[in-house]
Each structure stands twice: as structure tokens, then as C-alpha cells.
Design a protein that fits this description.
This is Transposase. The protein is mostly helical and about 220 residues long. About 45% of the residues lie in helices and about 10% in strands.
């Protein structure tokens, strides 16, 4: 029965430490066993056992050195967070004050936003936090505020449902049939004034917009 790649890797992982410490005679026995189990050639099996958990570099045709990923033990780096809770808290406050803009709009505006908020004593920042906020990228802003955006996402965004009663009785014109230079071509929708909570009673406004910008229907 042919072994899977993961099984072969596990076998090499267990046999490699013993092989690397073994004598020449002992290495032959280990190689014989590995070749029998995996079906590898002796040369390839010997190379895998010798270079297991070691950094291996191969030179390409262009002269550059490439690291062989399969022979490297991944080391988890404990990097210190650049944007800590203090930075996140200040960023969140600014984001909410300016009506939750996206990262591409918020990041370039932070210098004058921070200046105005500090002037009116709406925000108190240390020099370290301020420097981090001024150097933050739009992508990092979106990443840091991802959880907050999920909290503000409404499940139901629209309450308008298509009706079937008059669907076949009213002639419908497609966008290609519209004449934007003439009044009478409109777009309409309902706007719900529910404050984000659709339960209970609330008002709705029927919004009708004339496509012809020079005239608005009441």
C-alpha cells in the first residue's frame, strides 16, 4: 500500500534525529528501512534525513539563492504589537465622532481631525499614541476596526418588497428606454425611520426622484 505524503514526512521526522547521530554502519540500516517504507531512492532518502530541520539554500539559474521551505522549522515570532489598546481606543473614538468612515477616507484625514479634536478638548493623546495614529495606513485602520464594524452592521437593510399584483398591468420601461432630458422618468424607494431597530411602529418616507436633474416631483 502506497503511503501518503504526510505519512512519509512523519517517518522522516522520527528517523532523522537518529540518523544524524548514527555511525556509518547504523546509517545504512536506517536508510534501508526508509527506502523500503517510502520507495524513495537511497540518494534522496539520505538527503532528506541529513537536511531535516535545517535551512537549505539552492542556487537558481539566475544566480539567486532560494530557501527550500520544506526543510525549515517554522519559528513563531512573538512580535510586540505596534497598535495597542490605547491606540485602538483613540482610533475608535475618532471613527465614531466622524460617522464611521472607511479606512481610505479616515487615515488621510487623521492629521486635521486630531488637531481639531485636541483643540476643542474632545481628545487627549500622548505623543506616542499621536505619532502612531498619524502613521497608520488605511488597511490597518480597517483591520483594527473590523470588530466594531460588525457590531454596527444591520441584518435588514431594506424593507421594500416587490409586489406581484400590478406587475403585469403596469408597463415597465428599461434603462435603455429612458429619456433623461424629459421630466417624468423617476426612481422611487421607501426610507424607514426606525433608528436601526425594525421592531414596533415607525414612519416611512416615500422618496421619488426625477432622473431629469432640472426638475423634482413633489
Amino acid at each position: 500500500m502506497e503511503l501518503t505524503m504526510n505519512t512519509r514526512r512523519e517517518i522522516i521526522k522520527k528517523m532523522a534525529p537518529e540518523y544524524q547521530k548514527a555511525t556509518k554502519k547504523e546509517k545504512r540500516k536506517i536508510l534501508d528501512e526508509l527506502v523500503h517504507l517510502t520507495g524513495y531512492t537511497r540518494t534522496y532518502a539520505s538527503w532528506l534525513l541529513s537536511h531535516h530541520r535545517r535551512k537549505v539554500y539552492l542556487t537558481g539559474r539566475n544566480g539567486k539563492k532560494y530557501r527550500v521551505i520544506g526543510s525549515i522549522t517554522k519559528v513563531k515570532r512573538n512580535r510586540k504589537k505596534i497598535y495597542d489598546e490605547e491606540v485602538l481606543s483613540s482610533l475608535k473614538k475618532i471613527w465614531l465622532i466622524f460617522d464611521c468612515p472607511c479606512g481610505k477616507r479616515l487615515a488621510p484625514s487623521l492629521p486635521w481631525m486630531i488637531k481639531k479634536l485636541e483643540k476643542h478638548e474632545e481628545l487627549v493623546l500622548s505623543q506616542e499614541v499621536k505619532a502612531k495614529l498619524l502613521s497608520i495606513s488605511p488597511a490597518t485602520v480597517d483591520r483594527l476596526l473590523q470588530k466594531e464594524k460588525r457590531k454596527l452592521t444591520f441584518t435588514f437593510r431594506s424593507y421594500t418588497k416587490p409586489g406581484t399584483l400590478l406587475k403585469h398591468q403596469i408597463p415597465v420601461r428599461t434603462f435603455a428606454d429612458w429619456d433623461e432630458k424629459r421630466p417624468g422618468f423617476c426612481e422611487m424607494d421607501l426610507v424607514a425611520h426606525d433608528g436601526g431597530n425594525p421592531s414596533g411602529d415607525f414612519c416611512q418616507t416615500l422618496d421619488v426622484t426625477n432622473v431629469n436633474c432640472s426638475r423634482w416631483l413633489p
